[in-house]
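At this stage, I wrote out one protein, both as residues and as discrete backbone shape codes, and that material follows here.
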Amino acid sequence: MSAVDYDENESKFLRKAKENPFVPVGMAGFFAIVGYRLLKMKSRGDTKMSVHLIHMRVAAQGFVVGAMTVGVLYSMYRDYIVKPREEQKALQQK
């Protein structure tokens, strides 16, 4: 992978993050939950490994789904409430 490819990939990620800021939040939350639960695995007690892993997966997926939901609501708010107001103000100023 050359330096040019790396710059293009980095700018693509930053562009996507600016368009939908909840994608990096969802990714960070996913990795934080997985990391925390993996560290907590040492002190799981009598809980079976499979049950612990299922709880970890459900928590991580729940966080990602929540971040996606908030992201969709934010983009709908921006597209259907904020944009029409700005367009209406622009028409009134003319």
